[in-house]
Amino acid sequence: MKIGCAALYPITRYGFPYSFDNYLQAVAEMHSAGFSACELEINVDIDLNEYVTRLAEVKNALARNEMKLSAVIAVVNGGFSQDAATADEYARRFDRLCQFVADAGCDTACICAYMPPEIQGVPGSEPYRGAPPMRVHVPARFQWEKFWENAVKRFAQMARIAARHGQRLIIENRVGDFINTSDGVLKLIEDAGEPNAGCLLDLAHANATKEHLDLIIPKLRKRLMYVHLADNDGTFPYHLPAGRGTIDFPAVLRSLHAVGYTGYVNVDYGGVPSDQILDQVRRGREFFAQCLSDLGALSN
C-alpha cells in the first residue's frame, strides 16, 4: 500500500475553497511532511478553467517537490441532475476535467454522489464547511425509481468518459450524499457495470454511518480502489487524526492487506486548527507507515 495526502489538507490549511496559489504552496508543504503523493480537488463550476490554463504550474510544482497526483477530486454538482440539459453540460465539464487529469499524469478521477440541484439542501445543516447538507427538500412528485435509473445512467456515462482518458472513476461513500453507505455505493457501481468504476472507502464516513469496517472491506474487495484514513467516534463525520476517535486502524490495515489491497491509503485529516494541520498529517503519515511496515505492506 502507498500513503498519500488527501485534499482535505489544503482545505484545512487554507480554507474552502482554497485558491490555485494556495494549492501550489500546499504541494510543497505536503512534500515537507514526507509525502510523495497527494490529491487535488477541482470544482468544475469554480476553478476548472484556471487549472486547465495553469496546468504547467501544477506539473512544475509536483515535479519540483517529487510529488505524484494520486487522484483528482472532481466536484460535479450537477452531474446527477434529472434535467437532461443540465446533466449533459456537467458531463461535458467532467470530460474536460478528465483531459486535465490525463495531462497532469494522473490515472484516477474521484466523485461523490452529489445531490442534484433540483433537491435543495437546507442551509446551515452542513456538518462541516464544504460538506453536503444533512437536510434536504425533496420536490413534489419525486420518484426514487426514476431518480435511481438516471443516477446509474449518469454514473456509467462519467465512467466511460474517464475510461476514454485512460482513467479509473472512483466514488466516495460520503455522509449527506444521495447514497452514503458501502451498500449504496456498491449497488451504483454494479448497476452501472463499467469495469473502470470503483469505490473510494472513506473510513471516517463509514464509521459515522455505523458500518462494520471489518465487513466493508471484504464486501467491496473487487471494487475497492482507494482509501481515505481519518478518525471519529462514530457520532458525526468528523475527519480527525488517528487516536481521537474509535477506529482501530491497525485492524483496518490488516483487513486491507488480507484482501490483497495495494493501492493508496491517504491521510484525510481535518478538524484541527490550520496552523496545526501540517504537523498532524506528518504524524499521521508516520503512524500509518509504521502500521504498514509491521504488516510488510508498505510500498512506494
Brief digest:
The protein is α/β, with parallel strands linked by helices. The protein has helices at residues 8-14, 20-32, 48-53, 55-64, 84-103, 144-164, 182-192, 203-208, 213-220, 249-258, 277-295; strands at residues 2-5, 37-43, 68-75, 108-112, 120-121, 136-137, 168-172, 197-202, 224-229, 264-267. It has one domain (2-295): TIM Barrel (Alpha-Beta Barrel).
Describe what you observe in this structure.
With 300 residues, the protein is an alpha/beta fold. The chain has one domain: Alpha-Beta Barrel (TIM Barrel). It is built from eleven helices and ten strands. It has an eight-stranded parallel β-sheet. The chain starts with a strand and ends in a 5-residue tail after the last helix. 44% of the residues are buried. The mean pLDDT is 96.
